[in-house]
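hey so i finally got around to running the thing on that chain from the lab meeting. sorry it took forever, my laptop kept dying and i had to restart like 3 times. anyway pasting the input first so we r on the same page abt which one it is
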Amino acid sequence: MPSLHDLCLLGASLGAGLIAGLCFAFASFILPAFDRLGAAGAIRAMQSVNAKILRSSAMAVWFGTMLLGVLGSVLGDGRPLDLAATALYGLGAFLITGRGNVPLNEELDRVDPDGPNSVEAWQHYRLWWGRWNYLRTVACASASACFAWAL
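ok and heres what got predicted. didnt touch it at all, straight out
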C-alpha cells in the first residue's frame, strides 16, 4: 500500500500536470483563437475567462496541488526532490502568475473593448501575458515531472 507521502506526491504530480496543461492550452490554441476575434472580441473573451476561472474547479486543483506538495515535502522529511518540485510549482503557479499574469488580467479588466485604445491594449496584454504564461507552463510541467520522479 502506498504511503501518505507517496499519495501526496502522486496527487501533486497530477495536479501540476493539469495546471501545466491548462497553461499550455492557452499558449497553443486559446490565445491564438482569441486573436482571430479581433481586439474587441479577444478582450471580451479574455475578460470572460478571467471572471469565470476564479470560480471554477481549476482553482481547487491550482491550490490543492500546492497543498499536496507542501504536505508531501513535510511527510518526506524535506527530501530535496520533494522540495524542488514544490518550489517549482510555487514559482510557476503562484509567483509568476501573481506577479506577471494577474496584474495584466486586472489591467485588461479595466479596458473598454470598444474603446479607442483597445487594439494597443490587446497587443500589449497578449505579448506580456503570453511570455509570463510560457514561463509558468515550463515551471508547472517541470514540477509535475519532479513530483513523479520523487516517487
